[in-house]
Amino acid sequence: MRILRELLLLLSLYAGIALAVYGVWRVWPESKSHKEGVSQDETSLLDRTEGKIRELLHREVTADANDEPVVKQGLRKLQERLSPALGKLSYPLEIYVIDSGTVNAVCLPGNIVLVYSGLLRRLQSPEELAAILAHETAHAVHRDPMQALKRELGLAALFAMVGGRGDGVTGRLMRRLVSSGFSRQQELAADEEALRVLAASDIDPKALADALRRIRGEKEDDPAVLQYISTHPGFDERVQLSEKASADWPGKARPIDLDWKQFRSQFRVLR
After folding, report:
1. I need a labelling partner for 70 at 20 to 30 A (CA). Which of 13, 79, 166, 265 fits?
2. Phi-psi region of 256 (alpha: psi -120 to 50; beta: other; left: phi over 0)
């Protein structure tokens, strides 16, 4: 039942995305597209679409996120530690933890980052969680979720918009979105940004390598992490990049003031 619930949540999220795109397209002034260049129109439309998507996702995510004070405080501490080093964001960053056995973390359009407690089960320190958050936040800085959405919707969304129907297309689109991830180039670029943020935040960049190793575990074919690894390609290359950044780092690590045991105890799947 939990797996079904998670799938329904994902499907509802992406259904909202499709509706948001359609809604923005309907209200977009036709005359504007004639007066301005295509690329400018496309950028403006993408920006407005992201705002609508953020509103929809916020309602869906907050309904399922763990809202225990200890969790909120812990996430706030991590965010405050990383924020000074972050690049410019199109929208304020929001981080939530979903109490689920799923081993995953994802950056959604609108700078909403989700971490599943199944992933927390494998991490052993707040620094490792900070490394995962730095990586996902880097996707937000690079606006990778919106670029991926633009790539995934493409002709299918256009068909749904123009035809006013196309439920079958939307269903196939949602399944594609659920199974897709960022490209290898996007993942490596996010790692590079994350390592920079960690170092600037007085966190040893090796925390990312440690987190990746713990997520994979001893069994590379563990079904619990196959999807995470498949949507985050170049595992060995990413670990080596993290370890090199650590070796070249002239800084000194400063512990994160977060009671890791207490933080993890707030999740059902970790008790």
Report:
1. 13
2. beta
